[in-house]
Amino acid sequence: MDPFFVEPIARGGKYRLLEQSELPTPDPDLQFKIVIVGDSGCGKTSLLSSYIRGSFPSEYEPTIFENHRAFLQDSSQQHILTVDLWDTAGQEDYERLRRLSYQDSNLIILAYSLAAKDSLLNIPEVWAPEILGFCDKTPIVLVGLKADVSKKEVHPEQAHNVAKSIGAVAHIECSAKQMYNVDQLFNACVNVVYNQHQAAAREAARDSKRFSKGHFRIASNSNNLAAVGSEISKESRSDSCCTIM
Ligand SMILES: Nc1nc2c(ncn2[C@@H]2O[C@H](COP(=O)(O)OP(=O)(O)OP(=O)(O)O)[C@@H](O)[C@H]2O)c(=O)[nH]1
Ligand SMILES: [Mg+2]
């Protein structure tokens, strides 16, 4: 089975991680928050380090909490996205702190290790319920880490089934150690959040049109005018509605 499985929602453009020295001017409305969670020791911090710094940490240091800001440019060079990557603690001792990370997240990277079967079993047992409890509408990308290990404890089909059962939008295998699929993973994640942002913007534009059209139709009935106007101003954030009033 193809170890790299991505639903259409994760497809789209390509994004280049910018160096800090490039001093980007990011688009203010293109700011996203991605949180990575999963069992302790499954490889979350190493994955982020490989992606952001291009280096694989030589020693294991349990994370308490860490936050990285990345700037990404799309291939058409029209947009610069700001992506905050929140690394969390897999250890139970820091559970309360981790739970504070979910708020306002645009995407969750849910990680397991291909070298530890329990870490996959914990996805539906522990992690999916925790995520659903804090952000039930946030898309999840399931990631199998340590794809380089020779003795794998997880079969790709098992993991695919888990991905489907929790409603993940994509499932990808990576190796932080060998930089395998790391850029592809983050590219897919950024496409998910960007596509979602664009869909929300289109929906908002449609709503605004609907409200302004509806107002013109009802406006001929002068008895309803005040009530309709007040409803529109309550529900719509669009300037076009306000000007009609
Ligand atoms: N072979 C292999 N080992 C890895 C890989 N990624 C991480 N490791 C090792 O797995 C161990 C744990 O890695 P971390 O990235 O610190 O794990 P974590 O998920 O951040 O753990 P917590 O911070 O405790 O939640 C370390 O000894 C890493 O060297 C990988 O891609 N391949
Ligand atoms: Mg860590």
Polypeptide structure, described:
This protein is of the alpha/beta class and about 240 residues long. The protein has one domain (about 5-200): P-loop containing nucleotide triphosphate hydrolases (Rossmann fold). Helix content is about 40%, strand content about 20%. The protein has 7 helices and 8 strands; from the N terminus they run E-E-E-H-E-E-H-E-H-E-H-E-H-H-H. The chain has an 8-stranded mixed beta sheet with strand order 1-8-7-6-3-5-4-2, sandwiched between helices. Strand 4 and strand 5 form a beta hairpin. Helix 5 (about 180-220) runs antiparallel to helix 6 (about 225-235). The radius of gyration is 22 Å and the shape is globular. The model is unreliable at about 215-245 (pLDDT under 50). Magnesium ion binds near residues 45, 63 and 87. Belongs to the small GTPase superfamily. Rho family. It holds the Pfam family Ras. This is GTP-binding protein RHO4. InterPro entries: P-loop_NTPase, Small_GTP-bd, Small_GTPase, Small_GTPase_Rho. Keywords: Cell membrane, GTP-binding, Lipoprotein, Membrane, Methylation, Nucleotide-binding, Prenylation.
Strand proportion, as a percent range, falls in 15-25%
Tally of DSSP β-strands: 8
Poorly predicted parts: 216-245
Distance between the termini: 59 Å
Which descriptor suits the 3D outline? globular
At the first level of CATH, the class is: Alpha Beta
